[in-house]
């Protein structure tokens, strides 16, 4: 037996004994974290420099973007439609100002050139514009076009989730004519309305006459022939106003019909309706919606040599655009596709469709983060969207669609806490729902423990292990344990902790053993992000046909998020050493030497750098350096996307776009820079100088002999007499401290302050009779049982 094998056997034996003791402890104690699930107590209004109630004076016009690089998508919360889909280049207007639409109707689809505009001399040819200026606002898009003859200004906006309007004002038009047209199958004329009937939806389009005040006075009559429609308009003065509207209803939903679509369009756009007032109402809706967003007070990023400085105005604009994007990606339930839940998609304008067949634009990774953030301002929609994902996990633990890192239990927990905070009267109802959701989570996490890997199309390698999947499995198990505590599934907690122990030792072999920190870091000598297991048990770090290669320059992007995992200390030592070695001397590189950034992984890297500062003082300030680099590049690239990729001395956006990952980074990291973390389901202060300790700050934790205690990440403090959670950093707990019955104290520091928090750790021996019974049962069954019991109690 070699030394390595002996060490592994010793570890397994220790794990069995620790698990036996911890199960005995489980029988005598109930696991709970009462503070984190309590809806009682008045909560702090301001966390760090973030006003949790938002900014009641928010004005959408204050974040207008008329620069060369601007967002072009436009949607509306709960709408099935988004206008101008695709990447920035694709979404730019063509010469005809063509209207392109992506829709969540019986799956996901796109339809192009639904409306086009040409203009020219009254007696000549209507042509494309010669010059164009555009601007983006949360609630509208504007275009100012110049033609050979005449000019126009156009406002595009949603009247509501079903109706979209292009309101046009022409000038220098006395000798001009304007043509609107489209070629679209299924178009017929009903009076002066255009009815477009497709297999799964109806459009009702109107070409509206407006007076000088913007009121509807009638309709122009379009001409229809063989799947094409057009209308020619001449003017008797230099200026005039008109509009195009489109109302959409899906088929096979409740009482929807062609007649109902026309009735809805007639009601929304009745004669006498003031479209300027409709636009003002839309603006007011967005002003009030974005006013609810927890409002940071500090914007602007210093950056580094290559990234430069990000002005406060640009940062603030990107932050609220990210929230706008998040809100415009809310889709109402789509029962015609068998999906009766809200969706928070990764980006309707991306037209991505690799999710579940019933919700193809919803992604089980990006959308989960989106739902978590949304739950702070729209908790009911977020709760329902979360339910849609979780209830679609089958009895084998598999969720349809692209198989991505786990955020399931995490999302359930965040949504649960925000629902409980907003609806404390529903605590019993919410707990009952948790009990229904939990079996799906459990099935998923047990399946994922055996399959920590990416599965998508032909990329399906059962022998693959992926460190990023392992990291986020650990995170999800952490939240699954919290849920199990709430619903009284104590026996499952031991199973989860046994799985965690096994995963840690497997990870040692899969990812860490080949890294020697005493040798220079290189493509060969590094912590491995990926592992493929041969039939004989030997390891490879790349595989024929797979895009994953642990020695690629990109691979380290997926490694350092593991600093958040409570691995054995020697593994965390390697992670910290490797991070510092890799980034040394690269402080002025766009992404600190990394080739790319993806929020789903990078957020954990930021959290790990932050949380490990107490144990590794050499990491002090590294999280700020990291989030600053990401913020600079996410903001400079304007468009939101899946991946930020280094290109020479700057970066570009790659992958799915526009999609939510870089939007999530801007939101999350802006809050972190303002002293707030939202990822835990409750507002958590990081570095708030105005907090004080309370009688609830110090805590007690119980564990079994030989079972490493899990200390809480937050403690209760107060700010201005109101309750608040604050991040606490604990020192390393040595193994000998919990190797025998007794108790000891751990002193942590409330992050960013001089305040200390004390934790009394009680090490229990358990019931000897129960221990012997468990040993006998375990031997008889031929199984190894392990786990950890942790009880959080606030000292009184």
Textual characterization of the structure:
- There is one protein chain.
- Strands 7, 8, 9, 10, 12, 13, 14, 15 and 18 form a nine-stranded antiparallel beta sheet that branches. Strands 28, 29, 30, 31, 32, 33, 34, 35 and 36 form a nine-stranded mixed beta sheet that branches.
- The chain has 796 residues and is of the alpha+beta class.
- 51% of the residues are buried.
- Mean pLDDT is 91; it is low at 9-37 and 767-796.
- The longest helix has 26 residues, at 3-28.
- Among the domains are: 3-44 and 690-794, no CATH class; 67-286, Distorted Sandwich (Beta-galactosidase, Chain A, domain 5), CATH 2.70.98.
- A hairpin with a 2-residue loop joins β16 (223-225) and β17 (228-234).
User: What's the rounded overall pLDDT mean?
Assistant: 91
Tell me the name of the CATH homologous superfamily of the domain at 67-286: putative glycoside hydrolase family protein from bacillus halodurans
Structural class by secondary-structure content: alpha+beta
CATH architecture of the domain at 67-286: Distorted Sandwich
Q: Give the CA-CA distance, first to last residue.
A: 52 Å
Radius of gyration: 29 Å
- How much beta, percentage-wise? 15-25%
Low-confidence stretches: 9-37, 767-796
Number of DSSP E strands: 36
Q: What's the CATH first level of the domain at 67-286?
A: Mainly Beta
Count of alpha/pi helices? 16
Helix content: 25-40%
Strand count, sense and barrel status of the largest sheet are: 9 strands, antiparallel
The general outline is elongated
CATH domain fold name of the domain at 67-286: Beta-galactosidase, Chain A, domain 5
């Amino acid at each position: 037996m070699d030394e390595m094998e002996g060490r592994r056997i010793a570890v397994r034996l220790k794990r069995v004994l620790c698990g036996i003791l911890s199960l005995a402890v489980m029988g005598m104690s109930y696991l709970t974290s009462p503070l984190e699930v309590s809806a009682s107590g008045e909560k702090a209004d301001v966390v760090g420099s973030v006003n949790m109630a938002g900014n009641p004076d928010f004005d959408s016009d204050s974040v207008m973007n008329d620069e060369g690089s601007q967002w072009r998508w436009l949607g509306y919360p709960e709408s099935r439609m988004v206008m101008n889909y695709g990447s920035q280049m694709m979404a730019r207007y063509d010469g005809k100002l063509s209207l392109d639409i992506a829709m969540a109707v019986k799956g996901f689809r796109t339809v192009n050139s639904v409306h086009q505009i040409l203009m020219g001399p009254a007696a000549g040819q209507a042509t494309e514009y010669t010059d164009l200026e555009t601007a983006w606002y949360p609630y509208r898009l504007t275009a100012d076009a110049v033609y050979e003859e005449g000019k126009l200004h156009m406002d595009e906006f949603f009247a509501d989730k079903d109706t979209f309007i292009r309101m046009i004002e022409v000038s220098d038009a006395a000798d001009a004519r304007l043509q609107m047209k489209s070629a679209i199958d299924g178009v017929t004329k009903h009076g002066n309305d255009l009815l477009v009937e497709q297999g799964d939806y109806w459009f009702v389009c109107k070409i509206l006459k407006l007076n000088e005040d913007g009121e509807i006075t009638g309709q122009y009559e379009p001409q229809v022939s063989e799947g094409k429609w057009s209308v020619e308009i001449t003017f008797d003065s230099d200026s005039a106003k008109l509009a195009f509207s489109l109302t959409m209803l899906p088929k096979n939903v409740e009482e929807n019909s062609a007649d109902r679509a026309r009735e809805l369009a007639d009601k929304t756009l009745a004669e006498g309706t003031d479209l300027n007032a409709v636009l003002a109402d839309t603006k007011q809706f967005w002003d009030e919606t974005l006013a609810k967003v927890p409002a940071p007070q500090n914007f602007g990023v210093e950056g580094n040599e290559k990234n430069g400085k990000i002005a406060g105005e640009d940062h603030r604009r990107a932050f609220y655009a990210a929230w706008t994007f998040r809100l415009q990606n809310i889709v109402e339930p789509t029962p015609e596709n068998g999906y009766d839940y809200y969706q928070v998609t990764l980006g309707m304008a991306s037209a991505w469709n690799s999710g579940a067949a019933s919700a193809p634009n919803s992604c089980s990774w990006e959308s989960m983060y989106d739902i978590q953030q949304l739950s702070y301002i729209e908790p009911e929609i977020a709760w329902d969207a979360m339910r849609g994902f979780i209830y679609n996990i089958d009895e084998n633990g598999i969720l349809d669609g692209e198989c991505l890192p786990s955020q399931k239990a995490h999302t359930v927990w965040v949504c649960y806490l925000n629902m409980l905070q907003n609806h404390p009267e529903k605590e019993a109802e919410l707990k009952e729902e948790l009990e229904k959701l939990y079996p799906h989570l459990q099935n998923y996490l047990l399946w994922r423990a055996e399959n920590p890997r990416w599965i998508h199309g032909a990329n399906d390698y059962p022998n693959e292990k992926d460190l990023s999947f392992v990291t986020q499995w650990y995170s999800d198990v952490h939240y699954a344990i919290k849920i199990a505590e709430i619903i009284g599934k104590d026996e499952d907690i031991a199973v989860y902790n046994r799985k965690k122990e096994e995963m840690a030792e497997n990870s040692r072999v899969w990812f860490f053993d080949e890294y020697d920190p005493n040798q220079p870091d290189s493509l060969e000598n590094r912590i491995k992000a990926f592992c493929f297991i041969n039939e004989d048990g030997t390891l490879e770090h790349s595989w024929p046909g797979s895009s994953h290669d642990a020695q690629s320059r990109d691979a380290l992007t997926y490694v350092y998020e593991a600093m958040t995992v409570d691995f054995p200390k020697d593994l965390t030592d390697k992670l910290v050493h490797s991070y510092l070695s890799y980034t040394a001397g690269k402080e002025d590189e766009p992404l600190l030497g990394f080739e790319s950034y993806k929020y789903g992984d990078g957020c954990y890297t930021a959290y790990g750098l932050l949380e490990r500062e107490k144990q590794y003082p050499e990491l002090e300030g590294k999280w700020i350096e990291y989030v600053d680099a990401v913020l600079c590049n996410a903001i400079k690239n304007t468009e939101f996307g899946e991946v930020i990729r280094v290109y020479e001395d700057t970066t570009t956006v790659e992958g799915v776009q526009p999609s939510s990952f870089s939007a999530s980074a801007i939101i999350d990291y802006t809050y972190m820079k303002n002293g707030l973390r939202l990822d835990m389901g409750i507002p958590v202060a990081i570095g708030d100088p105005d907090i004080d300790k309370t009688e609830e700050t110090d805590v007690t934790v119980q564990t079994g002999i030989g079972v490493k205690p899990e200390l809480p990440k937050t403690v209760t403090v107060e700010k201005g007499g109101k309750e608040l959670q604050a991040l606490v950093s604990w020192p390393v707990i040595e193994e000998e401290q919990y190797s025998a019955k007794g108790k000891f104290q751990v002193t942590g520091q409330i992050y960013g302050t001089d305040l200390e928090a004390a934790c009394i750790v009680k090490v229990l021996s358990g019931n000897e009779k129960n221990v012997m019974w468990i040993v006998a049962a375990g031997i008889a069954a031929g199984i190894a049982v392990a786990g950890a019991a942790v009880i959080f109690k606030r000292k009184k």
